[in-house]
Design goal:
The chain is 11% helix and 34% strand. With 143 residues, the protein is mainly β. It has a 7-stranded antiparallel sheet with strand order 3-2-11-5-8-9-10, with no helix packed on it. Strands 1-4 form a two-stranded parallel ribbon. Strands 6-7 form a two-stranded antiparallel ribbon. It is globular. The mean pLDDT is 83.
Length: 143
């Protein structure tokens, strides 16, 4: 999914093997993933998508005064994360987040710009009912 504030940004779904970079999108307060070399395109991840970062993951410092003085970013010890959405009952907040193996959840919009990651795997999607019916019809009858 792509966060609510990205409605004016070109987007495409993630694919396994995509090389991504954390980006701040023009004319929005939002950060997310873009394909490397395409900063104006948002890559939308489905809940359950796994990504691996090339280096240590950094998020912006929390709190007004820390952001004001641009103190050191907080680092996360894990390099692999699973995409998920949070705060879905609050329509005017960011929802796109990464969950790390230790349970830490970080909003995509709080990640430092310029971090590279690769899409490791997409979540399994249930087949549409029509595909299931078509598959049943193609199977020979068993006696």
């Amino acid at each position: 999914m792509c966060d609510y504030s990205l409605h004016a940004v070109a987007s495409r779904p993630a694919k396994v093997g995509d090389k991504l970079i954390t980006t701040k999108y023009s004319n929005t307060p939002t950060r997310g993933f873009s394909p490397i070399g395409e900063p104006r395109v948002a890559v939308c991840l489905l809940p359950g998508t796994e990504v691996a970062f090339e280096g240590q993951v950094e998020r912006e410092p929390m709190g007004f005064f820390l952001n004001l003085f641009k103190r050191h970013s907080a680092t996360i010890i894990h390099k692999v994360a699973r995409f998920r959405q949070i705060n879905l009952n609050s329509p005017s907040t960011h929802h796109d987040a990464l969950e790390f193996p230790d349970g830490q959840i970080v909003l995509l919009t709080n990640l430092r710009v310029g971090q590279c990651a690769t899409v490791l795997q997409l979540p399994v999607q249930p087949k549409a009912e029509i595909e299931i019916e078509a598959a049943r019809e193609e199977q020979p009858a068993r006696s």
